[in-house]
Amino acid sequence: MSESRISLTRYLIEQQRVHGVITPQLRLLLEVVARACKRIAIAVGKGALGGVLGSAGTENVQGEVQKKLDVIANEVLIEANEWGGHLAAMASEELDGIHPIPNRYPQGEYLLLFDPLDGSSNIDCNVSIGTIFSVLKRLHDDPAVIEPVSEADFLQPGRQQVAAGYCIYGPQTTLVLTVGNGVAMFTLDREQGAWVLTQDQVRIPEDTREFAINMSNWRHWAAPVRRYIEECLAGAEGPRGKDFNMRWIASMVADVHRILTRGGVFLYPWDKREPNKPGKLRLMYEANPMGWIVEQAGGAATDGRRRILDIEPKGLHDRVAVILGSKNEVERVTRYHLEADGQPAPATAV
Ligand SMILES: O=P(O)(O)OC[C@H]1O[C@](O)(COP(=O)(O)O)[C@@H](O)[C@@H]1O
Ligand SMILES: [Mg+2]
Ligand SMILES: [Mg+2]
Question: Fructose-1-6-bisphosphatase class 1 C-terminal domain: from which residue to which, for each copy (predicted)?
Answer without folding.
Answer: 204-337
